[in-house]
Amino acid sequence: MNIETIRDYCLSKPDAEETLPFGPDVIVFKVNNKSFLLLPLDTEELRFNVKCDPDLAIELREQYSCVLPGWHMNKKHWNTIVVDGTVSSKLIREWIDHSYDLVKSKKK
């Protein structure tokens, strides 16, 4: 999985949009005008932030070394995923789906 794969997957979601509110180095994917994935472009290692149910967030951090508390985010609700090859692309897509679904379900 690479930046383009993640970008394409996020943009394939209904009503998803790509924004650059923090400048050219971080792509923010939104639905209903709310962020569901932040993708920095200026890191050596591919990583991104996704929203997560708080209980699941803790569980994933304990189970997977590539899942960290959300960098520069509310650590209760956000995880940083380091794309280091330790988990499958399918699982990464599931985490993106979870984030998208959480944000999509919120009222505008």
Automatic annotation (TrEMBL):
Gene3D superfamilies xref list: 3.90.1150.30
Name of the protein this chain belongs to: MmcQ/YjbR family DNA-binding protein
Pfam families for this protein: YjbR (PF04237)
Organism the protein comes from: Lacibacter luteus
The keyword Oxidoreductase is assigned to this record: no
The entry's keywords: DNA-binding
GO molecular function, one term: DNA binding
Superkingdom assignment: Bacteria
